[in-house]
Recover the amino acids of this structure.
């Protein structure tokens, strides 16, 4: 029996992780769950999975949930203390980080220090604090198992290749709903248009990020940390069918990749049972119905959020944090109807120029950078 804790259990990745638990009841046991504010769902999950700890970020909601769960044996926490309690839950061997945003960094660090393996969905963690997380994981001898589908595909492609040099990582992107559109066309994009992803069903923020290609930018940075390659070795390839989830090209020219349906439960399952494979009770990929797979170069001029990510990663220090924080803020403003769609990458670019630079930032400095970026944006827009 493997014991797991989940940060963000009420979200898209969190619920799909619980579906994998349902499919593997005899082998997976949930011991701790955390969410932001959705206590209806969390109450339902607590009753179904009987974890010993649940956490809700919102203090009042946590108090309400505690009342509601008074008939079962469970500790209810709130705020950062709650996230840390879930991340370090004694019985857990693995933490699934399915929380959204930089709020996930501290609990992930705490879990690593407590010796838990990490099934990492929260990409903000490596983007902003990869220089802290990767050495820490090495020091504590814990595994960072990628859940992001592209990184899982790369990870699977490297299986058995230990020591063989990577020539290039081929990071595939669907291109999102606006692939092929001109800048003038993007100026008219509405929130509703941007929330329609052609292949994947995901949380709101990442769906917008996929449409701007900022998600791919974040994934370039995530790949750099996970697989210890240079930026020049990471090539984004647009593949609208989302069948090849990413690949590795080796020195001899061989390209090894992983294909599958666009179903996040496969990378989740792989991370939970690595290095073993288990049955996924889901629709299988049918190559006959796929028929054709196509590949194109990304349009980094129109979708310049992607080229800004390369700039941010190249600058290093706290610049990836500025990139990420500016995007988080801009996406929230777009969803609130405060800015237009094309202002999202503009806000990221201005923030990267205006917010202070810090080399090798500590966790405190990363969080200060986030705050300074938010303040800069608030003062200008
Ligand atoms: P969702 O928005 O669907 O879910 C986010 C989860 O985080 C919810 O459970 C939410 O709780 C919880 N949460 C938010 N803020 C807090 C907080 N302060 N304290 C505790 N819990 C909090 O996001 P996704 O599942 O789509 O994405 C999660 C992460 O995984 C992101 O980093 C994303 O980039 C990454 N990812 C997602 C993929 C996908 O297919 N969805 C693919 C690859 C990576 P509540 O419901 O109460 O608000
Ligand atoms: Mg992805």
């Amino acid at each position: 029996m493997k014991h797991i804790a989940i940060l963000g259990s009420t979200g898209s990745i969190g619920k799909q992780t619980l579906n994998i638990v349902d499919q593997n009841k005899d082998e997976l046991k949930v011991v701790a769950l955390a969410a932001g504010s959705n206590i209806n769902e969390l109450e339902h999950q607590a009753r179904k999975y009987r974890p010993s700890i649940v956490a809700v970020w919102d203090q009042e909601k946590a108090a309400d949930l505690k009342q509601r769960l008074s008939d079962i044996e469970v500790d209810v926490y709130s705020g950062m203390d709650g996230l840390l309690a879930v991340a370090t839950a004694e019985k857990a061997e693995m933490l699934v980080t399915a929380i959204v945003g930089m709020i996930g960094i501290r609990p992930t660090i705490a879990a690593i220090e407590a010796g838990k393996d990490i099934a990492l969905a929260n990409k903000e963690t490596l983007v902003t604090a990869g220089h802290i997380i990767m050495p820490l994981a090495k020091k504590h001898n814990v595994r960072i198992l990628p859940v992001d589908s592209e990184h899982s595909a790369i990870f699977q492609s490297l299986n058995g290749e230990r020591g063989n040099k990577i020539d290039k990582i081929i990071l595939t992107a669907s291109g999102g709903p606006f692939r092929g559109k001109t800048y003038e066309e993007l100026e008219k994009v509405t929130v509703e248009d941007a929330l329609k992803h052609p292949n994947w069903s995901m949380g709101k923020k990442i769906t917008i990020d996929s449409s701007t290609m900022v998600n791919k930018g974040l994934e370039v940075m995530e790949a750099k940390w996970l697989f210890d390659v240079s930026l020049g070795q990471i090539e984004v390839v647009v593949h609208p069918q989302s069948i090849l989830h990413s690949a590795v090209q080796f020195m001899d020219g061989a390209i090894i990749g992983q294909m599958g349906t666009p179903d996040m439960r496969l990378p989740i399952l792989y991370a939970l049972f690595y290095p073993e494979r288990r049955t996924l009770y889901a629709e299988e990929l049918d190559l006959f119905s796929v028929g054709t797979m196509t590949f194109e170069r990304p349009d980094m001029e129109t979708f310049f959020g992607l080229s800004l990510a390369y700039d941010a990663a190249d600058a290093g220090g706290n610049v990836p944090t500025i990139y990420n924080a500016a995007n988080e803020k801009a996406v929230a403003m777009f969803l609130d109807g405060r800015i237009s769609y094309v202002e999202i990458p503009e806000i990221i670019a201005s923030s990267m120029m205006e917010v202070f630079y810090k080399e090798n930032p500590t966790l405190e400095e990363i969080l200060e950078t986030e705050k300074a970026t938010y303040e800069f944006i608030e003062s200008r827009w």
Q: What stands out?
A: Residues 99 and 234 are 26 Å apart (CA to CA).
